[in-house]
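User: Sequence in, structure out. Go.
Assistant: Echoing your sequence, followed by the structure tokens.
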Amino acid sequence: MNLIRWSYAGRGRVRAYFDEFPHSVVHLSRIRRKYFVRFVNWSNLDPVVSRDDLCAIEKSVNMALADEFTIKNQK
């Protein structure tokens, strides 16, 4: 599962877009230093999102944004 892009949605929330679910938007919330799936705006054009998919989504977003936070904090 590859993260295509993400955008900041305000108040510690992030919108993420993935290659396996190109028509669905995943909304994540930040709790302490990690992001967790809040809900998914699922589209009928995409396959059903399973619990394993949600875990993979959280893992890939946290890996991608960990790099952003370490770069930001180093400056």
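User: And one key feature?
Assistant: The chain has one domain: 3-74.
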